[in-house]
Amino acid sequence: MLRPSTLLSPFRLGDLQLANRVVMAPMTRCRAEGHIPNELMARYYVQRSSAGLMVTEATQVSPLSIGYPNTPGIHSAEQVAGWRKVTQAVHDAGGRIFLQLWHVGRIAHPDWIGGELALAPSAIAAKGQTYTPKGMQPHAAPRALELAEIPGIVEQYRVGAANAKAAGFDGVEIHAANGYLIDQFLRDGTNRRSDSYGGSIEHRARFLLEVTEAVVGEWGARRVGVRLSPSGTFNDMSDSDPERTFTYAARALNAHPLAYLHIVEAGEGDLRHGGRTVPTKALRQAYEGVLMVNGAYTAARAEQVLAAKGADLVSFGSSFLANPDLPARFAAGAALNAPDTATFYGGGEKGYVDYPALPAAAGV
């Protein structure tokens, strides 16, 4: 029977005490009708509140940042009120929860944003198709942000961070991964600018660093995390030298004593689509603070990386989606529920809040 020790041990995250090192990764679930968090979402997060920390699904900082159906926002009073009900329920259950701040950039199809063109560092459309109100359609070409517009986008992140505080969150995570706006600025496959936000890695990283500074100004660094996907190809992403790009970004983030840096490691799909693996070890060496890793980890593999000091925290995605009591299952060495992929994105209770937990006697 597997009984992890380090994985289930308490962890001090800045000024927060976490019950364990099992983090629930951010996962888009598309249950926010009208882009407003609701009671069903509160139930979902409460069920998983035994995680040391939960990071919410990606949450829009702007009405022009909608890329998928029924994803929540954090830019209106109604959204703040909806999230406040979620955080209150989670805290009543003893949980800790960060909100993930998100701008999809070029992935926003015009049909989601009133017919306007998506915003991006450069006018380069992603290859492939995306979800729209009319079904799957090819990605539309975005509009390159004017230099004078960029401070306004940074301000949207700051306001989103302030709204997250008003909604009662314990902190925020900046979504700089998975081919969305910050990632689009970082990588030279999507950033062809020739001004102070493009060209050299120092210029391409500027947007990430300005967003981080703005969000830290609202929360203090120890309540802010950043998520990067150095090896990722999702949303048609590429970079000519990803190890150099992302080790630079990791070192630059040392300017702030952040809560953590969250690294999405290379997956099978990334390798299949030509992604170049950036070793987590290189990022561990570059970044001086708490490192969280994500990448189809099992309890045994998570225990190994923690024991080897390769990371401090491990986040779990689909396994937490299907197992609301994941830490208890790890402690008991119990079998895991299989995730229902057909219900990942949208629907109601099925595949969302109806996964069974262990009988109480089998828990921690």
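(the above was protein one; protein two follows)
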Amino acid sequence: MTTGHVDSITPADVPALRWGFVGTGGIANLIARHIATTPLARLTASSSRTMSSAREFADRHGAGLAFNNWKALCDSDQVDAIYVATPTSVREEISTYAARAGKHVLAEKPFASAESVQRIVAACRDNDVAFMDGTHFVHHPRTHTLQREALVNTGKPLSLDSAFQFALPDRGNIRYNPELEPMGAIGDAGWYNMRAAVEYLAPAATVRSVNAVLRRDDASGAAIAGAGVIQFNDGTTTTWNCGFDSGASVMELRVTGTNGVVSIENFLHEDADHSGSYYYRKAEPEAVNEVRRIESHLSSVASMFERFAAIAADATLRDYYATATLRTQALLDACWESAELK
């Protein structure tokens, strides 16, 4: 399998970016903690609906500027790039405004639709700024290693199976609000199932058929779980399960091919030392799982910011990431449409 990932980065060769965060919730706080671990990113500003929240976030993470207006943050000459950590319903508006203000855009996922992604990408290209979505696991060396060694490990891929399920009992969470997060669990957790298919199956394959179902919360009507199968025109398939009504957390992935099987117990995260492991089983009688460990000196989040700095500096590196976002959202849209018809 070929990959368009930026595989190696020398910090001295790439200018650091000054970051402004739009949104100060849980995911923004998590991401902010990782910025301090790379010299290629510096958090300089934050914005929230209230100045008190923006100021508290800025003080907590060492940013000098705070705004209660995201447009003012985007217009600041003290900011090079914007991280959009807001509900899906307003992600396009903020991302396109930031691009027109000359700021690079890193946006959380999912997006409202593939058409929405296309508009964001167009705004970024028209204004010569970088765009990337905030999917972390794709930036870990384990992902790159599996892509490079796919034909050796598994041979021709046949299927990919993934599950991302966890417990979210708090009905006050925005994931239970269909106006803010229209696709619920399918958008929030299912994004990772779709991205795994984009990263690990044939990149040029197109969708032949989609069959999906969803489960809704009785009180809010939010989609709290989904499952399905996608068949591609090259004969490969991906089956997926996602949800936030599971009794335990599950983040499993398996790629089956003609020569062997690769499986990952937690494909979204790495170990405490930033290394990531996977299991490999050859297509031989009585073969046993071989554990392989991929080292990394950075977390996948910090690596994401380093790669973002690289594509901000070099426009020729940007298309891979924009295309991956669009393909992921298109798969998500197809699964959502299929599930809603049931």
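Reviewer note on protein two: The chain has eleven helices and 14 strands.
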